[in-house]
Write a structure and sequence with these properties.
Elements: H1 11-21, E1 26-32, E2 35-40, H2 41-57, E3 65-69, H3 74-86, E4 89-93, H4 99-109, E5 113-116, H5 123-126, E6 135-137, E7 151-152, H6 153-159, E8 174-179, E9 189-193, H7 195-207, E10 219-222, H8 229-242, E11 245-248, H9 255-262, E12 266-269, H10 271-284, H11 287-294, H12 297-311, E13 318-322, H13 328-336, E14 341-345, E15 355-356, E16 369-370, E17 375-378, E18 384-388, E19 395-396, H14 400-406, E20 407-408, E21 411-420, E22 426-431, E23 436-437, E24 443-444, H15 447-453, E25 459-465, E26 473-478, H16 480-484, H17 487-502, E27 513-516, H18 536-543, H19 547-551, E28 557-559, H20 563-567
Parallel strand pairs: 1-11, 3-4, 3-5, 5-6, 6-7, 10-11, 12-13, 13-14, 26-27, 27-28
Antiparallel strand pairs: 1-2, 8-9, 9-19, 14-15, 15-16, 17-18, 18-21, 20-21, 21-22, 23-24, 25-26
Amino acid sequence: MEPMTTDQMPLLDHFYHWENQRPEEVFMRQPFGPLWTDITWREAGAIVRRMAAALQRLGLQPGDVVATYSKNCYHWVLADLAIMMGGFVSAPLYPNLTGPQLAEVLELSGAKLLFVGKLDDWTGPARFLPEGIPTIAFPHYNGNDRVAADYQWDELVQASAPIAGDPRRELDELWTIIYTSGTTGTPKGVMHTFRAPTALMENERTHRNLLIFGGDDHRFFSYLPLNHIAERIIVEGAALMTGGTISFAESLDTFARNLQETRPTLFMAVPRIWTKFQLGIYERLPPKTLRTLLGIPVVKNLVKRKIKKGLGLNHARITLTGAAPTPDSLKEWYQNLGITLQEVYAMTENCGGCTLMPRDAIKPGTVGRPLPNVKVKIDPETEEVLMSAPWMMQGYFRDEQHTREVLQNGWLRTGDRGHLTADGYLTLSGRVNDTFKSAKGKFIVPAPMEWGFAENPLVEQVCVTGLALPQPVALLVLSEIGKESDPSEVEASLTETMKTINQNLSSFERLHRLVIMDEPWEVDNGLLTPTMKIRRNVLHQRYNSRFQEWYRHPQSVVWSGTTKAVSK
């Protein structure tokens, strides 16, 4: 059998390569309180081979779907590798799915087995398991719910002989089914073959868009959900491709310490996390003090180094932001600290690869340029962004109708509105389906207004709505800083933000009222998807009966209930 070149090697073959080349080097690190447990490539291989054999022994057939329901931990990656090695298809699930949501995606995927791992709550969701689906429990992680399951991980591993040889997976075999968060209805299962991550990462190796490859020092920090395509590619996939080391966050409480102890060479975060980092720095160095220090030549570099070291990012060669547009002001703030945030625009359907902001050619107001081998065009009627690449999805699992709607003539319809600049950068202006019509018959595009509130640290969440109102209104959830601030200061700040946003809008688009909500928007109350995206239709249904009342309120900032009194 001819040896594969790297552009032909599925993820599993890269694992075999490093298992052979670096057997005693550390592949993964898991924190347990102040202590870390290391697992080498050789140790990982021994466990994965036994678990793959155990899955086959349980009667699973090649191509069967195996689901994983757990927060990030090293057993998650071991289970994923065992699914690959055993000849099966993975269906990774969000660890914050409610019981009904879990039951829904298990039914949709036709999963024949479920790995259950590190979870805040298993007792509740367990009641909704489809009848007859067997479960395997990861070893218990302190601080998480105890999992009662049909089989225990350690017992299965100890009772199984390793699978023989190095089982291969073909590039065109189905690798995974990743379920979207379901902002507008039933989650859809995005199908990717092994070719997709291979093609995307080899595109990086060839064109060096991020400079991931090169050198022997690759440290990755895993904390965003591993079932999300971004974390799956840029952490798990990149570690398998480069022979790097993955370190995990133990919990929210230990996140900062775990990050400092890892000092990753690549770090990716969503805008909300970059904002939280900023607010944490401001608690120690108020904005005025920080600006003054950065303006003093003899101390500014010392301040920058200290801040980056305090964050745990002083060794980060690559810092990424994505999942939602990042305000230019936030990116500029980090740039002044010597941290270049490169924006990534992508989605599950294109395996996390569409556009990237070039490190040396940043263009404000855009999400970067298409990657090499990516084609982007704009639908002239709807302004929808269409893209094409070698790593696009095969379609939605058992859903031909939605597949036909999204994949058309070799193009993927992203659902995002945007336009291309003369020099090839992509600018986004919101979701096509988020546009609504006011009572004046005018179409309102909420995203640009919502992005304007990202500049205000008092705001945690925002949704511009107002179907059938003469002018739109914005529903707001305050951040922790906002909740602790004096209500009069909150009102003044939000009013000023609204004025800034409105001055760039046409008269029919301008925000009429800001409504500060009492109820938090969470996954548990159905207002957020598992990826923390707002369910606009649910928000509208829940508060529609109060829109007229809020709209007619004499003040520009309305407190929806007891929030103002509590804040005092």
